[in-house]
């Protein structure tokens, strides 16, 4: 029996598809299900456990584009009849084509996105597909965490410490929507700008930093970068600065331009941490091609005083 394995790898922002054949000398045959589930030693999968796939048509002479609500993390193709890659310069647009004309039978396509959603498609060949551009944004809906959501389900990602990406996104939205100022003593105000840390929240293995940037001038502020670094409180002369960068795992409403007379807020998600003795957290906001950078420090007591999300209304 001939088996085909498809291996999909991310390389330089694109996908590489490899096929490997294994032949045992017999001709390929279609083996219909007999209904015998391993001599009765296992239970059958019932339809309520199935993630219903979407129907997708592809062709050889045209490209089908699928737009997802988050960056594409993983793609698997059911057979060598299909090819897929992220559209150049994008993270959430997948282009799919048929490798050969008029391939018979049916294949499938599976996609996992950065928000932890899993999508399933059954794929057939069509000379003229009716739907060449498909948008999946309408699949973001508010069901219970960890349960099936119609044609998608939730996937846990390692980087979030075992937390559901869907729950993380809801917590960020709730912090942003509630807009509370839990911390009143951490901010930086200069050059007509004011950068404020409004609150720190902790839930399981993650911490949420709620920041606000107010532009009191008429000149827009172009964000170059925002950094979170653990640095020494005091550095003696001729002593190298010891520092450790912490990369945010997620950010909600992270804008790169703050218009004149505008105020914008962002919620950052960081892995849970505390500060060693003699260390502090330095948060820096740098202006692109400008000198209105802002910065402030956070002490260990501020981290230990992080609020829980129990009092927040998580929608």
Question: Layout of SSEs?
Answer:
Layout: E1 3-11, E2 14-22, E3 54-58, E4 64-67, E5 72-77, E6 82-86, E7 93-98, E8 107-113, E9 117-125, E10 133-135, E11 152-154, H1 165-178, E12 187-190, E13 193-203, E14 206-215, E15 221-232, E16 243-245, E17 250-252, E18 257-258, E19 263-271, E20 279-287, E21 294-298, H2 300-304
Explain how this protein is built.
The chain has helices at residues 165-178, 300-304, and strands at residues 3-11, 14-22, 54-58, 64-67, 72-77, 82-86, 93-98, 107-113, 117-125, 133-135, 152-154, 187-190, 193-203, 206-215, 221-232, 243-245, 250-252, 257-258, 263-271, 279-287, 294-298. The protein folds into 2 domains: 3-155, no CATH class; 167-304, Sandwich (Immunoglobulin-like), CATH 2.60.40.10. Strands 3, 5, 8, 9 and 11 form a 5-stranded mixed sheet that branches. A hairpin with a 3-residue loop joins strand 8 (107-113) and strand 9. By secondary structure, it is mainly beta. The N and C termini lie far apart (51 Å). The longest helix is centred in the middle third of the chain and has 14 residues, at 165-178.
List descriptors.
Immunoglobulin-like, five-stranded antiparallel beta sheet, 2 domains, 315 residues, mainly beta
State the oligomer: single chain
Number of helices: 2
Beta-strand proportion: 35-45%
- Shape category: elongated
Total number of domains? 2
Could you tell me the number of beta strands? 21
Can I get a quick summary?
This protein is mainly beta. The protein contains two helices and 21 strands.
